[in-house]
Amino acid sequence: MGNLKNYNATLFSFVILNLLLVGLDSYLALSMEKLNAETLIKLLPVSSIVILSTIILNGFLSSNFKYMLVFMRMNNPLPASRLQETLRNDHRVSIDQVSEKFGPIPNEPKQQNIYWYQKLYKPNQDSEKVRDIHKKFLMTRDMTAICFMILIFSILNTLLLTGTWLHIFIILGEYLIIRLVATNYGKRFVATVVAESI
Hints:
The protein is mainly α and about 200 residues long. Helices cover about 75% and strands about 0% of the residues. Helix 4 (about 65-70) crosses helix 8. The protein is elongated. It starts with 7 loop residues before the first helix and ends with a helix.
């Protein structure tokens, strides 16, 4: 069983892109005339801390808070907490098929997640399809969390230092897009596990 969280290179690239965006935005807000080869060379050591920054940013928020950011829910944010809703929107399997094979699906969100995890996910966690979509979901969930923290930093940078509001809107747009992608991958992850179980 390979490591599901083996997507660090993608996260590093994501953080580099956002650090460059934040740095360039602040730099341009100060003065275009200062942008030269010597200044760019001085900025190179910043990229050497990207690995450390990514590890810290990704580990700063709890998994539960990351799920809250993705699904915009304070209570029961895990994607399988809405198992019945997910199955109603999936054309591969039905609630009746799942209930017939594994017993009735609970109505309470927390119990739906437990049902899904114990009866459907655990027996199929090593399936290649499940592992692939699970990895994509975790990666985009973590990207959503990192983007949220960069957004907070950008707001503080603009209010207290030299950032611009345009930059905040760009990061906000990035956050909303990545959050939507993570939400879709989360739903697909739940549905794929169910499809693999039937």
